[in-house]
Amino acid sequence: MAIRRILGKNEEILRKKSKSVKIINGRTNLLIDDMLETLADAHGAGLAAPQVGVLRRVVIVDVGEGPIVMINPKLTYTNGEQETVEGCLSVPGEWGITRRPMSIKAEYTDRDGNLMEIEASEMMAKAICHEIDHLDGILFTDKVLRMVKESELVFEDDDEGDGEGGESSEDSGASEGKSSKGASGDESSEAENSEKPFEVGSGEAAEAGNSESSEN
Fold first, then answer.
1. Domain total of the chain
2. Is 214 within 8 Å of 19 (Cβ atoms)?
3. What's the predicted TM-score (pTM) here?
4. Active-site annotation holds for 131
5. Is position 212 within any domain?
6. Tens digits of residue pLDDT in 93-150
7. Domain of 97: which CATH number?
8. How far apart are CA 84 and CA 73, in angstroms?
C-alpha cells in the first residue's frame, strides 16, 4: 500500500473519461488499497481513480461511516435537489455552492465482484455524484453556482462560531481535504499477483460499460 499523489485541477487526465473495469485482479486491488490509504491521509470524503492518475472507473466514498469501494458505479435514480457547499481534493482551498440530487440510487460492483445497489441522500448522495463526475472528466467547479470564500465557512471545531454563516465542515465538500504526497498514480507500475481475478460482467458482477479514453 502507498499514498499516491493527488492530481491538481489543471492536469489533463482529470478531463478524460475513465474506462470500465472488466476484470478485478491484483492490480485493481492494489489500486483500491492505495486509494484507501491516500483518502485516509488526505482526510477527504471521497476519491476517484483519475485523481491519482488512473483512468479506471473506481471510486471510494467515506462520509464518516466507513469507506465504500465502488467499481463501475452508475446512477439509476435521482430525486429532488440540494444546494450545498462542495470542495475537492484536486481543487484544494476552493469551495463553491453546487446543485445536486437530494437522493439517489446507484449500482456498482464491490471489490469481490458482487453487484451492489445503494440508496443515499444528502451528503452521501452528493459525494457519490461528485465522484462519478470525476470518472467522466467533470470537476465540481464545472457545476458551481457560485464560489465561496473560506471566511464564509463555519467549521465544526469553531465552538463559539464567528457569525459569518456558511456550512459546517461536515457538509463542506464531497472530496475536500488536504492534498497528499506520495508515489506516482501510474497503474502500469503496479505489480501483478497470483490472485484469481473476478470478471466484471459475469455471474454476480456488474456489467462493464464503454469508455472513450485510454489509461494514462
1. 1
2. yes
3. 0.76
4. yes
5. no
6. 999 999 999 999 999 999 999 999 999 999 999 999 999 999 999 999 999 999 998 8
7. 3.90.45.10
8. 23
